[in-house]
Amino acid sequence: MSETREFGLAGIIGTSIQHSRSPVIHNHWLAEHGLPGRYVLLKVLPERLPAALKGLTALGFRGCNVTTPHKQAVMPLIDHVDPMAARIGAVNTIVVQPDGSLRGFNNDGNGFVQSLRDEKPDWRPDDGPITVVGAGGASRAVIAALAAQGAREIRLVNRTWEKARDVAAEFGPPVVPVRWEERGESLRGIATLVNATDQGMAGKPALDLPLDALPREAIVGDLIYVPRVTPLLAAAQARGNRTVNGLGLLLNQARPAFEAWFGVMPSITPALRQAIEATF
Ligand code: NAP
Question: pLDDT of the chain along its 280 residues, tens only?
Fold first, then answer.
């Protein structure tokens, strides 16, 4: 424990990080637990990524989060990649080990799955079929976590068919690719719907997805949190479906990272939610 009492540094490495809420989250937890330390923004251009990663150990950082565009690029540059991160094909958290080596994790998918449970405690990945819209990096994280936690049928819908087909082939059952034209029909009988596209984000058009076939008991998740209620979530709420936005993912993925860096598993308290709300 004495080591966790030393001043601890962590941060987020990316190129467009000025709007990241991660400093609010981790600095809130440091203060709450009376731990000396700071979580900082680390703007790193792609050509400086190898040097920046080496610098983490040299500067005594506990580790860092990794965001666009470095989530894939860090993988060959670190010493150990956790199996879930390898399956997703991206790392979102790096932990400096006692010997100075770097381990990479990806908590995004598990963070999102936990946020579904936080909203609906009796929710289970095998409650029924799940439709995931989008086949990019965030979708891969969600699919990997859902599959690892027992999902039996994941209908993967993507605008570009080849991507849905390739991701489904790579993950194998339970992932089934669905053509974009069949996206509305893919909602029939499902227990869970996830938007893993950027459609509905502030400044972008709404996700083009008719909800007529969506069962009212299904829970609807959107990885977006700006705005906190996307047009998809508003439409789902209007029909009586329960919803979660991407803030739950952000908060839940941060918890194991904080524990790995600072030795304490933090909680998502009303005070933390208020601190995040104040940033909007
Ligand atoms: P990405 O790799 O760029 O993938 C984007 C996806 O959106 C692709 O499947 C793409 O389909 C689809 N898409 C783009 N424009 C579309 C359109 N007009 N109609 C239908 N589909 C369209 O992005 P990502 O990293 O996976 O991120 C996806 C979302 O998750 C973003 O909104 C991001 O902010 C969010 N996210 C949130 C968190 C969090 O902490 N809450 C963490 C990670 C990501 P095509 O293949 O056809 O191009």
Answer: 445 578 999 999 999 999 999 999 999 999 999 999 999 999 999 999 999 999 999 999 999 999 999 999 999 999 999 999 999 999 999 999 999 999 999 999 999 999 999 999 999 999 999 999 999 999 999 999 999 999 999 999 999 999 999 999 999 999 999 999 999 999 999 999 999 999 999 999 999 999 999 999 999 999 999 999 999 999 999 999 999 999 999 999 999 999 999 999 999 999 999 999 999 9
Go through the chain and tell me how many residues it has: 280
Q: Which of 43, 54, 71, 204 is catalytic?
A: 71
Written as six digits, the tokens of 231 are: 């047009």
Nearest atom within ligand 1 for CA of residue 201: 32
Q: How far is the CA of 188 from the centre of ligand 1 (A)?
A: 23
First and final C-alpha spacing in the chain: 36
43 catalytic per annotation:
no
Residue 64, amino acid: C
Q: Which residue's CA is the nearest one to ligand 1's atom 46?
A: 160
Q: How far is the CA of 242 from the centre of ligand 1 (A)?
A: 22
Query: Can you tell me the distance from the alpha carbon of 180 to that of 210, in angstroms, rounded to the nearest whole number?
Result: 12
With 0.85 as the threshold, say if the pTM is over it.
yes
In the numeric block, the tokens 């194991």 are attached to 256
